[in-house]
Design goal:
Distance between the termini: 22 Å
CATH architecture: Roll
Largest sheet: 5 strands, antiparallel
GO molecular function: long-chain fatty acyl-CoA hydrolase activity
Protein name: Thioesterase superfamily protein
CATH superfamily: Hotdog Thioesterase
Radius of gyration: 17 Å
InterPro entries: Cytosol_ACT (IPR040170), HOTDOG_ACOT (IPR033120), HotDog_dom_sf (IPR029069), Thioestr_dom (IPR006683)
Family: Belongs to the acyl coenzyme A hydrolase family.
Structural class: alpha+beta
Keywords: Hydrolase
Number of domains: 1
Amino acid sequence: MKPHDSEVSATPLTGASVQAHAADVAATAWPPLDRLRQTELVRPGQANHYGTLFGAEGLAMLGKAAYAVAARFTGQAVVMAAASDIVFQRPVPVGSLIHIDAQVVRIGRTSLTVRVSVRLDAAPGTQAPEALQGRFEMVTVDAQGRPTPLRSRSSSSVLGAPPGMAAWTE
C-alpha cells in the first residue's frame, strides 16, 4: 500500500486491510497495532450500590482502551470526538476478571473508529459473555488541538486508503 492524499471509506475495514496498514505503520509490531487487549479486575471502588461495576467506570474503561489503541495505531496525538452505541448487556460483579478488547474498524482522513467490548472471564473452551461495548470516534490533532491528517509513522505522507476502499468525506 502506498500512502496518498485521498480520503477513505467509512466502510468497516477487513482484517486484511487493517493488516496491510499495520504493516505500513510498523512491520514488526506485536501485538498488532490495530487491536489491544487488556485484562482488568473489577474492584470494590469501581462498584455501584448493587455491588456491580458502576456504569461510568465501565464507560471510562472503554474510553481509555479506545484512546490507547488509537494512539498506538496512529503514533499521533488523538482525542475522543464521540462515543456511540454504548450498551451495557449484563452486570459485572465486583471481583470479576474482564477482558477489554479494542480494535480499529475504520480509518478516515483525520479520524478513526474504534470498537471496544468487555467480556467476562470464562472457563477455557467456553464463550465469554459480552458485558458492555461501544464505538468511539478518535481524531488526530496537532499541538493546537486542531484536527490533522493521519500520517504514516514510516514516512511523512498522509496515510492512504487500504486497497479496495472507496472515497469517504469527513
